[in-house]
Amino acid sequence: MQNRRRAPKEITHKTEDQGLFKKDLGQFAVSLVPHIKRSSRGDLVVRGYLNDKREIFVIFAGRRAKDAVAVESRLKAMFVRANQAAVKAGSPPPEVNQIRLAIRVEGSWRSRFQRHVSGWDHKSFQLLASRWAFSDADGMTNLGGRPPFA
To answer: How crowded is residue 83: how many other Cβ atoms within 10 Å of its Cβ?
Structure first.
């Protein structure tokens, strides 16, 4: 299969944003959980919930992945703090889904279909983050990202 990706030095901010944000942008309130991974391209992928019900994945892609280190650090700190509190209390550690970080995200949606072992396709939603805001441990608002190039 032919590799159609451009070399990293050929990608400008404008071409990156044209590839990522193909649909209209919107603002969404999302609760992120400390289920974090990196894609093969180095993008930060975090599982979360829209309206505390619908499971989604928030993608901090391209140059925005570097800006999202604060989100990643905050989620990891919340996870460690919750586990330490459980150990002190002598209770079992909390489930990952119980640890949530409220965040406002401006971005666009894309849907993904993945083949399930049963043979049926499973539809999942990814929110490509352009800009975001959340409160840190001290209650200060932390802003990240940048608007896409037009």
So the answer is: 13
